[in-house]
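User: Here's a protein and a ligand (adenosine monophosphate). What would the complex look like?
Assistant: Let me lay out the input and then the predicted complex.
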Amino acid sequence: MQKKTVKDLKGNQLVDKRVLVRVDFNVPLNNKFEITNDTRIKAALPTINYLISHQAKVILMSHLGRPKGKVVEKLRLDPVARRLSELLKQDVKKVNDCIGEEVEKAVLNMQKGEVILLENLRFYPEEEKNKPEFAKALANLADIFVNDAFGTAHRAHASTVGVAEILPSYAGFLMAREIEVLSNLIENPERPFVVLLGGAKVSGKIEVVQNLLSIADRILIAGGMSYTCLAALGYDVTNLLLEEYDLEIVKKMLKKAEEQGNKIILPVDLVITKELSECAESKVVKNEDIPKDVKGADIGDKSIAIFEKEIKKAKTIFWNGPVGVFEIEKYAKGTNRIAKILADMEGKAVTIIGGGDSIAAIENAGLTEKMTYISTGGGASLEFLGGKKLPGIEVLPEK
Ligand code: AMP
């Protein structure tokens, strides 16, 4: 899949042009609504700098958090504009809306090489509903559209799909790199290719595993999905389940994996507790000995050892989702161990981290530099691996 990128805009095709760029500035915020991590802003810099240096007028748009179609003062993008100004070493003008008169005026007054940031797109319900009128209002601001927001490529929103259907469209550098790395992973991974999936969600991930059964050599499963698998195998884990799921589908998946030489590997022991808190008591039990009234908090030492053995044999590893409730220090042990094991594979295997909480775990452990590639999209990277067509990518023209 070779999408047209901003690099395909040659010579003076960008000079004085209004370029609307969908970026993913959905940065984590603390309870004072301050930015706690600017990785996503930094990831968009190559595209923004390229457009500036080619004298375009750069109009950036993003969502932040979940304002659910209403203006939420604390989810305005002003702190992002301030951080971006520091990183670019040039002033980024922030406007208080993403469509309408104020925005049109601001764009009209732009000079070559200037950057403005529109307001949070999700203040409008029309964004997530991909309403044509809203997409048109956004597209009217510009001559060219660039999508650099891989993290939202799995959503057909006005700013990802609607606008791309109207304007000449290109992938940004980050988007192009994400597509390249993940395509390589599913088409041509160096083997053995080991996938580790954790986290709380079950539904979307079962489909990913089904697709990976024909791609990966081993699939290690922890967290919410592992409890669903244990239930399908007949273990009494009702209290542990994080999501309801059709166990017949899971049974079929496990059967297929068994026929393929036990491709799926589940934890053999778990850390359990009556209450997911730092001070509540916890203990390690084998799958056979899980009491009825407890919650799952982490994987046990035996499981870590089994996962470690598989990871150490790999030449390519993809990891998405913590193996325990890592936000609570006491239950972060398994996740931190996994991060360290992957870091130790530096130079021996390709390690790819798929977004979200696994990035946070690796950053907390100070191991970011040890990984081969960190994808900015959690859900998007999983859907890519699940073999789904991502609407935000599909809509972009091929070379
Ligand atoms: P996801 O969005 O599916 O990647 O889930 C991430 C969340 O999964 C994190 O907030 C973890 O605390 C949570 N998680 C991981 N393992 C478990 C577990 N065994 N029980 C409950 N939550 C878990």
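Summary: The chain is about 35% helix and 15% strand.
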